[in-house]
Write a structure and sequence with these properties.
S-adenosyl-L-methionine, methyltransferase, seven-stranded mixed beta sheet, 243 residues, Rossmann fold, 44% helix, single chain, 21% strand
């Protein structure tokens, strides 16, 4: 990332602590706000992630930056024996635990409070690892990706869903206007945290995407790296594996 974007400009806290604080604050409205911001298209993107993961018939799945557990819950459709949702925000996890219980998936999905850059899991443990809209919140991107590589089994699948910036007119111009002007206003209307959705917009714009992220993944040691732009390029799904 060209610069380290943080939620709170004048805070003495590190990025991890700031991100945890921000998501704790917005956790109650996060799901509804996401649907509004993406016009519900994020559901379609997550289903495509599910399709990629399901092809490998995984028994163990890790969903990093799981938030309120949307993707982890979707992963239950793979019939995996063990699904773990990891997140740094206890507030988001509390919402997720309730959702999982309501869907009677508590025996399959475990929500774990933890740091994606220092995970409490053994080497070569997970058949599949997913991250939806979370890698840009890593304090140190390469450190987080190295941890993911460490806990992924050889031949396992790693899938990222992340925002990106459209490259073609008029989608690029429309996206820039929406993310800089409309997104923060919607965030302020729905959220108790005035800066949260300004940060999410700013961090998305600064994050490497497309071939730039592909090259970082290859540098870390991932193989079979593919980028699949979604909806005119406003999001991208990345798929990778491990030797």
């Amino acid at each position: 990332m060209s610069k380290n974007i943080t939620p709170y400009k004048n805070s003495d806290l590190g990025k991890k602590e700031q991100v945890a604080k921000m998501f704790d604050t917005i956790s109650g409205n996060y799901d509804n706000l996401n649907r509004v911001i993406s016009f519900g298209i994020d559901i379609k993107w997550r289903k495509k992630v599910l399709e990629i993961v399901a092809k490998s018939n995984p028994e163990t799945i890790l969903d990093i930056a799981t938030g309120t557990g949307d993707l982890a819950i979707l992963m239950a459709q793979t019939n995996a024996k063990q699904i773990i949702g990891l997140d740094i925000s206890s507030g988001m996890l509390e919402v997720g635990v309730k959702k999982i219980a309501d869907k009677k998936l508590s025996n399959t999905i475990e929500m774990v409070l933890g740091d994606s850059e220092n995970m409490p899991f053994e080497d070569d443990y997970f058949d599949a690892i997913t991250v939806a809209f979370g890698v840009r919140n890593f304090e140190t991107l390469e450190k987080g990706l190295k941890e993911i590589l460490r806990v992924l089994k050889p031949n396992g699948v790693f899938v990222i869903l992340e925002t990106s910036v459209p490259g073609k007119f008029p989608y690029k111009q429309g996206y820039n206007f929406y993310s800089k002007n409309i997104l923060p206003i919607i965030g302020k209307l729905f959220s108790k945290d005035d800066v949260a959705y300004g940060y999410l917009s700013e961090s998305a714009a600064a994050f490497p995407y497309g071939e730039a992220l592909n090259n970082i993944l290859r540098k870390i040691g991932f193989i079979d790296v593919i980028a699949l732009p979604q909806t005119f390029g406003v999001a991208t799904i990345y798929s990778a594996s491990k030797n």
